[in-house]
Amino acid sequence: VVSTQRQGSLIFVFWCSLDRPYRCLFAFMDSSDDDASGPKYNPNSDEEIPDDAPGDVKIYVKGGVVKRILETGHGYGKPAKGDEVIVHYVGTLHDGGEQFDSSRDRNEPFTFKLGVGNVIEGWDIVVATMKRGERAMVTIKPEYAYGESGSPPKIPANAILDFEIELLSFKAVNDLVGDGGIIKTILKDGTGFDKPRPKEEAFLNIVGKLQDGAIFIQQENHKVVVGSDMCLGLEKVIASMKKSEKCRAIIKSEYAYGSTGNDTLQIPANAELTFELELLSWRKVEDVVRGEVTRTIMLDGHGWDSPNEGAFVKVRYTARLEDGTVVDSRFAETVCECTVDEGNLPVAVDLAIMKMKKGEKCLVESSAAYAYGKTGNTQLNIPPNVPIKFEVELVGFEKNKEEFKLNNEEKLQEIVRRKDVGNKLFKLGRYADAFNKYEKSNRLFSYEKNIDATTKEKVDNVRLSCYLNMAACKGKLTEWRQVIEYCTKALEIQPSNMKAYFRRGQAHLELTQYEQAKEDLKKALELDPTSGEVKAELKKLQQQLDAYKQKQKKLFGGFLSSNPTALSS
């Protein structure tokens, strides 16, 4: 039953049936009614808002297509343009109810391509709104059906049509490059959201055919490296798949093996290829340090948590050269128990562990800089400047307490711990890593304002030590301007610190800023008149000044004597 009700200038359309309550379908403005004094619509009334439930009505193209849901569908996906859809339907004339067609009577589902003009426009509009399993009664006006011409003899001109449509299933069809060169049809939806990326190892069931049906490859659990040793079209298809997804892909020759073909696979020139693929799994590769360290997951861990800085970890690892030679197997079977990010492990392993889950196994590929560096490791017979591959297993871990959970006393202990780790890394020659530790130590109390005088004094002592050590790290890295910066910060805490003046004076000297160097070094000597290193640096300064004056004299002396009036103006 359909009825209308006016409230002011709004007209509401209602319907009810034996199995559904009285519901408001939609409302529209009656522009002929200018009387604003009538009763107004109350948005807080008990009238239900339509949802995707049986009995709900959806209106499209200004009422040209109206859908009433009889049974709700399932899942989230809906078919898109170009998808292959499979439906059952019964078609009747709106006036009189005479049936003119039925796939159910034929017991033969109807298959068509959506959105490409294979069916009347009203169908293209409404089927695109349906989910798998949804059944709906659809009313389509003539302009979205057969129009003025009708479809004789069963459908007269200007006929309104009713269809009961059930969307049985659909196969998503994707034009991956937009020019029809790679057409992918999903046969079975995958799970999750992740997809393989270039350089990752994918495992799949694969069947490849030529246009005449000849099979050129058929393998199960076939391993490929995405983007390597495959045609561009196949790379794009695999990179678009989800885990457990099955699909069919038609790849034109320009995205396959082109005019050369592939002798190994016996693919002729200019061949169009068809692949049937099932993505079983893949090994995820992620950047730990871009361009320096990558991590390939060989066995997924469990849980969501990962070790943080300062966590106590239990790990096994093996180090290999690129040719596979094992160079460190001390902890291949024996569990190494240590604190992460304290210099106990190679840097690449430290960084990778902080991304791993308990029980995870991964392959860590590292440049020399994040492995054993310029010096290598003589005890392990690791040569200098060599990339290393680490096989790492995270057996277990206990997280360090998160920064935001620390009280002031615990924060004080943590900044001392970080400073001590920095000292350890400095002694190992890992100056950049040591600098980072000192910086993190100083940052922990940077926003604390409400601390007592005793705690502040302790914090300032640690911060002073860290600033001096940060300057020492930058000196080792010959970054002299930053040496000056951190010595200045140290002097803000303790204006009479001899080391700060001395190191800042050294940095000024390296930058040939002689006056500033002289000033700082003299101040350092005042603070420690017995310091031999300050006296040696002042002597070095004087020698450089003398050499500079001699150079200036040679450069300008002849000029002045041959042209005595050059400066008189």
Mean pLDDT: 88
Low-confidence region ranges: 5-10, 17-22, 29-51, 560-569
Q: Quickly give the structural class.
A: alpha+beta
Characterize the main sheet.
7 strands, antiparallel
Based on Cα principal axes, name the global outline.
elongated
Give the total of beta strands.
22
Residue share in β-strands: 25-35%
What is the count of helical runs? 11
- Amount of helix: 25-40%
Rounded to an integer in angstroms, the radius of gyration calculated over CA atoms is 38 Å
For the record, give the distance between the C-alpha atoms at the N and C termini, rounded to a whole number.
109 Å
What do you see in this structure?
By secondary structure, the protein is an alpha+beta fold. The protein contains eleven helices and 22 strands. The strands form four sheets. Strands 4, 5, 6, 7, 8, 9 and 10 form a seven-stranded antiparallel beta sheet that branches. A six-stranded antiparallel beta sheet has the order 11-12-15-16-13-14, covered by helices on one side. A six-stranded antiparallel beta sheet has the order 17-18-21-22-19-20, covered by helices on one side. α5 (408-427) packs parallel to α7 (453-476). It is elongated. The N and C termini lie far apart (109 Å).
Task: List strands and helices in order, with pairings.
Blueprint: E1 2-7, E2 10-17, E3 20-29, E4 57-60, E5 65-71, E6 84-93, E7 99-102, H1 103-106, E8 110-113, H2 121-127, E9 135-140, E10 161-171, E11 173-175, E12 182-188, E13 201-209, E14 215-225, H3 232-239, E15 246-251, E16 273-283, E17 285-289, E18 293-299, E19 312-320, E20 326-339, H4 347-353, E21 361-366, E22 388-398, H5 408-427, H6 431-443, H7 453-476, H8 480-493, H9 498-510, H10 514-527, H11 532-562
Antiparallel strand pairs: 1-2, 2-3, 4-5, 5-9, 6-7, 6-8, 6-10, 9-10, 11-12, 12-15, 13-14, 13-16, 15-16, 17-18, 18-21, 19-20, 19-22, 21-22
